[in-house]
Amino acid sequence: MVESEIVFPSSSSLSSFDRSTDTDSVAGSPSLQKPSSSTTRHHHLSRKKKLGRPVGSKNKPKPLLVIDKANKSVVKPVFIEVPETYDVIRTIVKFARHHQVSIIVLNASGTVSSVTIRNSHYHASPFTLYGPFKLISLTGTYIHPHCSFSISVSGIKEQCFIGGVGGKVIAENEVMVAAVIVNKF
């Protein structure tokens, strides 16, 4: 069996901080002291940290979202049904004027028999296409008294036409327009 030998530093190698005249020193070495009684008590009283919510805490309900009906800028979704042979853009504008609201058109579905498109890239005059055409998308805004709409349609031979609306867009079948009412004017 190997015996280990404890070597204590000499008193000359100790700093003034390590030198102590405490009577509780171990084996006469000032650097090796017994743990203080507060450290011992703390060691015995330590417990595992409890998991979960603190004692007394509760799940507090979140406040309800209240929409003031007097607020003029409430967003409200609407669907506008455009009968056949009616002008889609004129129907949207007429709806907005009747309800005195600004409107944002998100999309439309259905078929149109003719559409007047203006191409802003070439500064050319608007031209009318005669279909039937399937509506791919119709987006735009009507903010009293101004309106601006963009349209894309596809023809029978998979031809696509995209541009700004420069005139009438006549519905061949019933056209459904998805829009959002923004505010009253």
TrEMBL record:
Region (Disordered): 1-62
GO cellular component term of the entry, any: nucleus
Superkingdom of origin organism: Eukaryota
Extent of Polar residues compositional bias: 26-35
GO function terms (MF aspect): DNA-binding transcription factor activity; minor groove of adenine-thymine-rich DNA binding
Family matches, as PROSITE patterns: PPC (PS51742)
Keywords: DNA-binding, Nucleus, Transcription, Transcription regulation
Composition skew (Basic residues), residue ranges: 40-52
Domain PPC: residue ranges: 72-185
PANTHER family, A to Z: AT-HOOK MOTIF NUCLEAR-LOCALIZED PROTEIN, AT-HOOK MOTIF NUCLEAR-LOCALIZED PROTEIN 15
Protein name: PPC domain-containing protein
Native source organism of the sequence: Vigna mungo
